[in-house]
C-alpha cells in the first residue's frame, strides 16, 4: 500500500521534534522518500547530519509531496497549514499529530482544505522533547486517531492505509470534537493531576523527604509532569472547555472519596475504589472481536462515515483499509462486550 | 552482619502475601533460617510447597526467633503484635511493613514493646497481591523506613543492619508521625488521585473510547487504582487526617491550575506546570553526599536519635550500620544541596 505503481510515496514532515522526528525516521526506515523541515536551524542541521533531506525553506521541503505530516507546536498549526497547502498540489494529503483536534479541523475547513486535510493524533509521547529524543519505534503499534470528514474520505483512506502499513497503527476514526472530549479525560486531565501532585510536593515543607519516599504511586502519577510546561499548557488551552468539564467529573469522584475517608466509612471507600479498579482492569484485559465492512468507494460516504465514527466512539479501531475494484474494505475491532448499533 | 557468631539468624514472617512473601523469599535465598505463617490455610500450603517451614499455629512459627516481620493487613497488626510478643523472647526484635506507622507505634508503646518493636515500611509494592505474586527481588534496593524510638535503639541498629545486608535497603530513619505525614503525599494521596481518575473514566459515557485512547498519562496515573480496594482503603483510613491535609494541598494547586486554564492565562499555566517539573526533575536527578557518623553504643542515645531523625527528614538515608568496640557507626547519604543543621 505504501508504494504507488510508478514510484515510492513521497512524504514530508514539518516540525521534526520528538513526534515529528520519530515519524520521519520510521517513514525513512520503511523505504519512503522523505524530507523534513523545522523552523530551528540547529534542528535542520542535526537532521542533515542523520542523512535526512532537510532544506532551509519550508516550501522546498513540501513541494511535490504526496503526504505531509504537520508536527509543530499546536499554536503554529493553522499558519503552517496555510503555507503548506499553498506550496503543495491538490492531490497532496495533509495531516497533523497535535493533541487537540477541533481547533485545527475548524481552521482547515475555513481554509477550504476539508478534502485533503485529515486531523490526526497518534497516542504516544514521552516526557522528553526534540529530535535528539526521537526514535523510529516511538509510534509503533500506537492508537492513532484520524478524523474523517464528509468530503475527505479519499484522503482518510489513503492516510489510514499509510499509518497502518508503516506504523502498524490501530487507527481510531473519530470526529474532531469527539476526539477532544475523549482526550480530555484520557490524556489532558491526567496532565493536570500530575502537575498538581508534583507542584504540591515542590511546595511542601517536607519536599526532600517526600521525594526520598516517592513510592511507585507518586513516581507514576507525576511522570508527565516532567514534560515541557509550555507544550502541556498549549495542549490544555487548546481543549480548555472540555478539560474543565472532565476535570469537574474527576473532582466529583475525588470529593466522594475524601468524604468517605473523612467519615471513616470503610465500606463506601472500598466501593468507590472498586469502581476505579473496574476501569483499570478493563484497560489491561480488553478483548476484541474482529469484523470486516465493505462500502462502495465512490458513494456519498454517509454510511461509511457513520460506521467509522461509531467504531471509534465504541472504543474500536481499524487495522486494515484497502480500496480495490470500486470498493473500500475495512478490518475493524470492537471491544467485548461493546456492540455497534 | 546477618549471622550470629554461633548460628544463622532465625527469622519469621507473619502474613505471607505480596510483601511478606517477598521478604521471606529473599531472607531464605540469603541463607537465613526462616519460617512463615499466614492465617489462610491455602497460603500456608502453597508456602510449604515452596519448601518453606510454615506451621499451622502462629506461635510455633515465631517461637525462638531472633527477628519477626509482621506483614499482615493494617487492621490486624495490633492484635498480631500482642500474640507474637507473647510467644517470643524479650531479645526478639519485632517489626512490621505497614504503609502507616503512627497507629501501630502507639499500639506497641501501649503494650510496653518500645524496646523491641521497630515500626518499618519498605517503599515498594505492586498492583498485585498474594504469595503467588511475591518475588525475592521486589524489595531489593528499596527505601525502607524504620522508626527508631528512644528506648529501642539497639533493636533499630540490629534491624537496620539486617535489611541493609539482605535487601541492600536504603534505610530512612524517621519518627512514626513524620513518616505518616510524608507518606500521605508520597504515596497515599496519589492513590486517591488514581482512584478518582479511574473512577471518573468508569462512570463516563465515553468510557470505552477513553480506554481505547488511554495515553501514557492515563495509564501511569491510574496504575495503583488496579490494587486491591480494601488494602488501599485500610491504608488511607490508617492515616486519615494527614491524607486529608495533604489532599487539600494538592487540591489548592489543582485549583490554581484550573483557574489559569479557565482564564486562558498561558503564562500562569506554564509557570504552575514548571513548579511541578522542578519536583519531578529532582526526583530523577538527585545527587547525594556521603558521610560517616559515630556514636557511643551505650550512651543515652539522644544525639544518635536526633541525627537519625534529621537525616530522614532531610531526604537522606543510611547504607551501613555497624556496632563495634563500644561504638555504632552509620554511613549516611544526604541529597544535595540539603544540609544537616
From TrEMBL, chains A, B:
Keywords: Oxidoreductase. The keyword Membrane does not apply. GO terms for molecular function: NAD+ binding; prephenate dehydrogenase (NAD+) activity; prephenate dehydrogenase (NADP+) activity. Pfam families: PDH_C, PDH_N. Residues 9-291 form the Prephenate/arogenate dehydrogenase domain. One of its GO terms (biological process) is tyrosine biosynthetic process. InterPro entries: 6-PGluconate_DH-like_C_sf (IPR008927), NAD(P)-bd_dom_sf (IPR036291), PDH_C (IPR046825), PDH_N (IPR046826), Preph/Arog_dehydrog (IPR050812), Prephen_DH (IPR003099). It comes from the Bacteria. Belongs to the prephenate/arogenate dehydrogenase family. This is Prephenate dehydrogenase/arogenate dehydrogenase family protein. It comes from Micromonospora globispora.
Amino acid at each position: 500500500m505504501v508504494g504507488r505503481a510508478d514510484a515510492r510515496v513521497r512524504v514530508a514532515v514539518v516540525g521534526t521534534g520528538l513526534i515529528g522526528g520519530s515519524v520521519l525516521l520510521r517513514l525513512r526506515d520503511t523505504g519512503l522518500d522523505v524530507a523534513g523541515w523545522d523552523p530551528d536551524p540547529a534542528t535542520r542541521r542535526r537532521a542533515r547530519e542523520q542523512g535526512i533531506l532537510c532544506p532551509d525553506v519550508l516550501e522546498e521541503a513540501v513541494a511535490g509531496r504526496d503526504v505531509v505530516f504537520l508536527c509543530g507546536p499546536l499554536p503554529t498549526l493553522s499558519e503552517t497549514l496555510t503555507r503548506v497547502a499553498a506550496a503543495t498540489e491538490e492531490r497532496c494529503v495533509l495531516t497533523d499529530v497535535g493533541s487537540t483536534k477541533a481547533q485545527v479541523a475548524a481552521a482547515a475547513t475555513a481554509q477550504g482544505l476539508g478534502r485533503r486535510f485529515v486531523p490526526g493524533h497518534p497516542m504516544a509521547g514521552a516526557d522528553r522533547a526534540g529530535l535528539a529524543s526521537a526514535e523510529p519505534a516511538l509510534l509503533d503499534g500506537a492508537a492513532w486517531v484520524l478524523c474523517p470528514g464528509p468530503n475527505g474520505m479519499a484522503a482518510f483512506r489513503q492516510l489510514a492505509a499509510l499509518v497502518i502499513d508503516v506504523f502498524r497503527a490501530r487507527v481510531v476514526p473519530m470526529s474532531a470534537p469527539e476526539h477532544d472530549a475523549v482526550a480530555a479525560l484520557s490524556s489532558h486531565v491526567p496532565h493536570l493531576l500530575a502537575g498538581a501532585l508534583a507542584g504540591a510536593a515542590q511546595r511542601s515543607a517536607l519536599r526532600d523527604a517526600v521525594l526520598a519516599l516517592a513510592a511507585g504511586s507518586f513516581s507514576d502519577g507525576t511522570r508527565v509532569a516532567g514534560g515541557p510546561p509550555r507544550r502541556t499548557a498549549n495542549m490544555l488551552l487548546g481543549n480548555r472547555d472540555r478539560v474543565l468539564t472532565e476535570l469537574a467529573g474527576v473532582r466529583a469522584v475525588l470529593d466522594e472519596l475524601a468524604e468517605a475517608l473523612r467519615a471513616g466509612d470503610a465500606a463506601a471507600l472500598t466501593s468507590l475504589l472498586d469502581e476505579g479498579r473496574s476501569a483499570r482492569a478493563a484497560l489491561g484485559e480488553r478483548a476484541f472481536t474482529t469484523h470486516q465492512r465493505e462500502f462502495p468507494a465512490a458513494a456519498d460516504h454517509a454510511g461509511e462515515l457513520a460506521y467509522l465514527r461509531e467504531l471509534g466512539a465504541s472504543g474500536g479501531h481499524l487495522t486494515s483499509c484497502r480500496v480495490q475494484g470500486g470498493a473500500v474494505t475495512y478490518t475493524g475491532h470492537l471491544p467485548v462486550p461493546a456492540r455497534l448499533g
